Amino acid sequence: MPLSVLSVASEAVPLVKTGGLADVAGALPGALAPHGVVLTTLLPGFPSVMAALPRAKVLHTYEDLLGERARLVAGKLGDHPLIVLDAPTLFTREGSPYADPGGKDWADNWRRFAAFGRAAADLAGGMVKGRKFDLIHAHDWQAAMALAYLRFAPVAGSAPVPSVMTIHNMAFQGYFDAAIFPRLGLPRSAWGIDGVESYGGVGFLKAGLEAASVITTVSPTYAREIREGEFGMGLEGLIRSRGDRVRGIVNGIDTHEWSPASDTHIAQTYTARTLAKKQANKRALEAEFGLEPGDGPLFVVITRLTWQKGMDVLVEVLDHLAGIGGRLALLGSGDQGIVNGLLAGAARHPGRIAVKIGYDEGLSHRMQAGGDAILVPSRFEPCGLTQLYGLAYGCVPVVARTGGLADTVIDANLAAMKVGAATGIQFNGVHYNALCAEIDRAMAIYHQPGAWELLQKNGMKADFSWAASGAAYAALYKELTGKA
């Protein structure tokens, strides 16, 4: 008998994406299917989601879901079951899923994602006839209230359902003023330190972490890091209190979508056996970014331009990178101050540094294929996907030693190089001297062709598909439900 799991997420590829959460939520159903798990995904009815469901079947109608009319409708996420909360007054808006066209968070995000959580709890509690779930898996703060509703306001007569709460990034917690509490439809017993209250307000993620049977993060190192104040963002005490109920499972990548052997976005396909063909992609990328062709390393950066990602430090090292013969192609968007600093660096070093502001999925593929090394100087990184794509494409990762970056990249130290195990370059401390030193180290290894090629081939041979991650999630689900 297959295990039936409800996965609750605010985004999932290919329907809606703002970041790595969408990649994970979109990949999990396929990753779990070989392990006897049928994963049904619940998404909010954003415009792009509803556009993909022209003939959706109505499962349930709400006359009053936290004050709004709404429906639960059924569809497909690829070949896998999908349920959508169709609530036009909550989700049919211009802008991103979470913010208006000017980038400001919607003032009623608390209502939007509390309603989403309430609907998830109703589904998990068996409210919809013919839809029964053995477990609920909530992702990030937008889905976390589902577990609070299951705990404090379950469907009448329903049996308890085990739950998993996954933290994709502790920095985003869904914190709101205490004044919203009476409007959530929760009993007064939910207001407390072991409920939804957090530092005098309502904490959506905090509520989910309190209620979950097990908490997971997207890498083992991040699961340890969030026990400390530097990474726990005020919730480190809660995390420590959960003890061995906090686990880490590294994300995988879609090895069909991200494969240099078959990628339709790139100028020349290649494999670890035909690595010389990668050079054609480098020449094409230089042309696309207006960079001077050269034999020195071409560094790439594909990221959000934020403090978390260490982009303020990257701005500081641009002159050093260009001065030692490196070149940089960057794609991203984010903080205007960082954007201005990057554009100023490109203006100082035309032909050496080039910046494109925005996001382009096809271009991100071409950058991994054409780049020699990808810089990921994040101050914290729960898992990270760009370094995994870099490994798959022979674009050597140069990463800060934190979170999933520490778990997925083997540093090119003397011991690892001697036994032929290294896949990239790690460094401690995201500051000017540290990043300059590692760019220098990357440059030195690059000019040892045999050593650099070994890093590339080791990375390309590593298995970061969803096979291992899917098996780990399936094992966790079966542990919690008692179903072998």
SSE layout and pairings?
Layout: E1 3-8, H1 20-32, E2 37-44, H2 47-51, E3 57-65, E4 68-77, E5 80-86, H3 88-91, H4 109-124, E6 135-139, H5 140-152, E7 163-167, E8 175-176, E9 197-198, E10 201-203, H6 204-211, E11 214-217, H7 220-225, H8 229-232, H9 236-241, E12 246-248, H10 278-289, E13 298-305, H11 311-323, E14 327-334, H12 336-348, E15 353-357, H13 361-370, E16 373-376, H14 386-392, E17 396-400, H15 403-408, H16 414-418, E18 425-427, H17 432-446, H18 449-461, H19 466-481
Parallel strand pairs: 1-2, 1-6, 2-5, 6-7, 7-11, 11-12, 13-14, 13-16, 14-15, 16-17, 17-18
Antiparallel strand pairs: 3-4, 4-5, 8-10, 9-10
Task: Spell out the CATH superfamily of the largest domain.
Answer: Glycogen Phosphorylase B
Q: Give the overall pLDDT as a whole number.
A: 96
For the largest beta-sheet, the strand count, sense and barrel status come to: 9 strands, mixed
**What is the rounded Rg?**
23 Å
How many domains, as an integer? Answer: 2
Q: Any low-confidence stretches, pLDDT <50, length ≥5? A: none
CATH topology type of the largest domain? Rossmann fold
In one word, what is the shape? Answer: globular
Helix content: 25-40%
Distance linking N and C termini: 10 Å
Backbone structural class = alpha/beta
